[in-house]
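During the first year of the project, the team set up a workflow for recording each protein of interest as an amino acid sequence followed immediately by a discrete structure-token representation. This format lets reviewers and collaborators read both layers of information side by side without switching files. As required by the reporting guidelines, we include two representative entries from the current panel. The first entry is reproduced here exactly as it appears in our internal archive.
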Amino acid sequence: MTASPDLGTRTGTPALLRSVFRHHAAGVAVITAAGERPVGFTATSLSSVAAEPPLVSFGVGASASSWPVIAEAEHVGIHILAEHQHELAATFARSGADRFGPSTDWSTGPEGVPLLGGVVAWLVCRVVARIPAGDHRIVIGQVVAGEPSEGGRPLVYHQGRFTALRD
């Protein structure tokens, strides 16, 4: 038997959304783009959109420091983080952090996109749409290059923290 919703359910608010989504485990990705300086941010909103053509989407806050570059970028990098990359995820999530400093393993990849080292897998995508969605923008990209995993387990975000899958 499944639990039925409480008829005293709270109204739709940002707090309710955050509270409910703390129960939703999500893969952790870092999105990067090239600008005057490279930019990047941690995202848990990555989603496969279509296989033909190969499309993905992610959300980015319109007030995020990386948004001005993402808003103009022709290409973005998408990196699926490995379970041991907690600190990298935290660095790219932290406001004001030196995300591409000496402690970050990265190089310039296809289309000039900054690519992070040691990740489970990566894609370079051509941006095909930017859709306003409340205080965020949904970015849709078409895959143009990538490297699938040769093993390794992904980092996961659940209950407000980075964690690993358990068998």
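The second entry, processed by the same pipeline in the following quarter, appears below.
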Amino acid sequence: MARSSKENRKEEILEAGLEVFAKRGYYNTTTAHIAEKAGISQPYVFRFFKTKEELFIAALERAFERILQTFKNVDAAPEQLVEEMIAAYEELSALYPNEIALQVIGISVTENAVRSATKKGLSSIQSYTVDRFKAAGIENVEREVTTFLARGILCNISYFIDLPELIDDQKNK
């Protein structure tokens, strides 16, 4: 029971961190802000995460893992794979907007550990997508994956800065 409660508290801190980092950014967020959001004392945050950076990386890793899992759950015919993966990502973005914001923030953080976590997360998504597109028989895989990922990153930026015109194809039709 105590283990379960401890894991729940860690999860609450992580969720509070996701929300606060998404709203305030990395540099403007303190562990005191996160503790306040979680309804706990600041020292209690440090029982689970040694630093703000460690908490941010845990949140960022969750975001990337959730994207990977979303793509893995897509069950589509090869000719529908790209469209289905895009639809799955759009749904994920609506369900977890804080994690989408965290990806944009993660790209802007200059600390080496955060950069490393961002690179690792993006690389794992790129690698999985290459493998998945190859298995589906998609031609020009590297170009198609680059376009797919670039569009995803543009969607993230569009959401983050509230500029839907960056990706709204309807205006040009």
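For the second entry, the following points were noted during internal review. The mean pLDDT is 92. The two ends are 58 Å apart (CA to CA). Both points are flagged for discussion at the upcoming steering committee meeting.
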